[in-house]
Task: inverse folding
């Protein structure tokens, strides 16, 4: 027996491998915790496949069975860091490799830490699981007629790409950027099975509608083909237009950037104008009669403007002459201002005098007629005829009741005073008359 093993060492090696495989198989089937996941189907899912969280193996598939039209997959969890799983945990069957669909794995996305734990032998409901679309399912959606048309479409695509190797290579160089742009969209679709199913159903409705309108679509494709053919013949011109279009877009971007700030200021202006705009209807009602009146006034205004335009040279000459005079006139007026101010105090007396003696040149007044004697001689010829004021003040019975200057309001019995004009209370004392000898 000993010689037999020495003559055939490979038998010993095979026996050791079988024992190691058996130990591995037993350990791989023995998991510390178990949870079940319900899928719509579990194609190619067998015991021993990996169960992963974020790409890290945390257990193995223990058993697969079908009940009530759904597949129940027992998932064994051996990683203590991954247990317990929380309510809201997602389970997804994924393809094992990118070039084949023979192998599978089950990917888990743990639920929130605040959620209750899934108990031992608990179940992940079907609403929280995702089953991939198998290739045969996709092929089964294409009937014989559709496959024929797909073959024709592929043949047409082959004809359209024939002898266009350079353009295809250039497109493939730009393809990575486009693929990166679509990566997030595809990832979202794969992550949301419901959205993907809705997309497929809507796509089916669209293709059905297009099939019902085949003639219209055929005419549209024919017209598009002619359009693209025209584009193809004018590629160089289109490229030149696009080269000119890029700088224009930069200018448009700059213009829109400036317009953005202008729009902000315009918004502020609109908010400021809004209260006034709300009052425009009432203003329009008030301005209506004025506008009607303006139609009558406008001709007069036009004639006035014509007259002003005719006279304006003369006015200009007058201003040229008057301008040098304004400076000394300003000084004179500044000196006259205190005098006018003091005279203004006697405005009531002046008005009364004008009312009393307004008709001095007439032979009658407001109440009765009277006769007048008009002297032919001048004032200087009367010198010495009439007694002086000094003589009158010295006559018996005369009483000068005030000093100079006479205070305003004295006739009405309510005199008032203005010290700046020299009118003080001393004006009521005749003995303080500065003109008294």
Result:
């Amino acid at each position: 027996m000993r010689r037999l093993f020495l003559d055939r060492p490979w038998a010993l090696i095979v026996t050791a491998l079988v024992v190691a495989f058996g130990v591995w198989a037993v350990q791989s089937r023995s998991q510390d915790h178990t949870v079940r996941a319900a899928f719509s189907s579990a194609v190619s899912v067998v015991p021993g496949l990996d169960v992963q969280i974020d790409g890290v193996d945390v257990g193995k598939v223990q058993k697969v069975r079908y009940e009530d039209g759904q597949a129940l997959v027992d998932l064994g969890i051996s990683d203590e860091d991954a247990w317990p799983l929380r309510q809201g945990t997602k389970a997804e069957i994924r393809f094992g490799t990118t070039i084949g669909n023979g192998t599978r794995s089950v990917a888990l996305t743990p639920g929130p830490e605040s959620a209750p734990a899934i108990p031992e032998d608990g179940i992940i409901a079907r609403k929280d699981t995702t089953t991939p679309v198998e290739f045969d399912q996709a092929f089964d959606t294409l009937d014989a007629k559709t496959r024929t048309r797909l073959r024709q479409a592929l043949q047409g695509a082959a004809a359209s790409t024939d002898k266009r190797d350079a353009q295809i290579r250039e497109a493939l160089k730009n393809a990575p950027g486009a693929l990166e742009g679509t990566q997030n969209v595809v990832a979202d679709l794969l992550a949301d099975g419901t959205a993907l199913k809705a997309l497929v159903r809507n796509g089916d409705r669209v293709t059905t509608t297009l099939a019902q309108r085949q003639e219209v679509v055929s005419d549209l494709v024919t017209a598009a083909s002619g359009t693209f053919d025209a584009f193809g013949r004018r590629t160089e011109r289109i490229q030149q237009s696009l080269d000119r279009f890029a700088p224009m877009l930069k200018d448009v971007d700059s213009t829109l950037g400036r317009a953005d700030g202008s729009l902000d200021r315009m918004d502020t202006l609109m908010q400021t104008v809004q209260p006034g705009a709300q009052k425009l209807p009432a203003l329009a009602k008030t301005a209506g009669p004025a506008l009607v009146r303006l139609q009558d006034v406008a001709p007069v205004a036009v004639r006035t403007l014509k007259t002003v335009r005719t006279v304006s040279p003369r006015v200009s000459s007058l201003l040229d002459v008057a301008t040098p005079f304004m400076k000394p006139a300003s000084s004179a007026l500044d000196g006259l201002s205190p005098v006018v101010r003091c005279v203004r105090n006697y405005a009531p007396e002046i008005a009364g005098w004008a009312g009393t003696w307004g008709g001095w040149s007439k032979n009658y007044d407001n109440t009765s007629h009277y006769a007048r004697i008009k002297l032919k001689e001048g004032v200087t010829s009367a010198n010495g005829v009439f007694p002086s004021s000094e003589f009158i003040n010295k006559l018996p019975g005369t009483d000068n009741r005030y000093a100079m200057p006479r205070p305003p309001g004295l006739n009405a019995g309510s005199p008032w005073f203005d010290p700046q004009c020299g009118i003080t209370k001393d004006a009521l004392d005749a003995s303080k008359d500065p003109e008294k000898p």
